[in-house]
Request: fold
Amino acid sequence: MPQNLLIIFAILLIIGNAPSNHEADCLNSSGKWIKEYNECEFIKKAWCDARGGTFIECASACRHAPKSQMCITLCVPVCKLK
Reply:
């Protein structure tokens, strides 16, 4: 019985450290994954819609930058996922 618990614990540990499906999909589609915000940048609307995300066609490149940081005004396509 204790050996079975050890195996289950190891599997849960591996699963917990694996990238999310969204992260892998984003990276495999040439997007840029932002883990902290659960966002995929530089991705197409169809990709976002297929995953139930919220597509922002022209998000600010500075949206997560501290107010004191210099930032260039630039549109970035972003998919915000749940």
